[in-house]
Amino acid sequence: MLMHSFLTRKDGHPLVFKRQFQISTWILCGIATLFLASRFAIRMHAKGRLMINDYFLVLALPTLYIGVGLLQSTVHVLYPLMDQRMSGAPYGKLVTSGTSRRFTAAIEMLWISIFSVKFCFLAQFKFHKPPYAYVSVHLTRYYWTVISLCTIGSLYAIIQPIVLCSGAGKTNHTP
After folding, report:
1. Each residue of 127-147: pLDDT tens digit?
2. How far apart are the C-alpha atoms of 82 and 126, rounded to whole Å?
């Protein structure tokens, strides 16, 4: 019996084929690199130096490439695993501990990249004295609340897999 999900069309084929996924992720990484390079070029031309928020993006780009590279190294396992899940067959020995670790590391790197971009936007308002601090105390409290929630979220995203998968081959969750 074929189970339908949001990952497959009604005829049972995946919405995004493996090759399309691989090509599109690298194209999007290339576009991200071009945007970052153009941002740095404009910043250097206009101000002559990079700002503090630009350094968060310097962290984001390598972690994006590392995360996508690790994700690409697990794609050959994820697609057959999805086929098994859709057909209702039990999981085979496709997921090895190395693949599981690479996939977890890929997700971690992608989360670090996402939170680096978030902190880039938040750092534009200068951590020490935001420009709207003179407008309203409520805006300042809201700003620091957002920074606190993003910090807590990033720490949770980084620590959670370490706690759940603390040893080699040992996980405290099921797929």
Report:
1. 656 566 667 777 778 888 888
2. 45
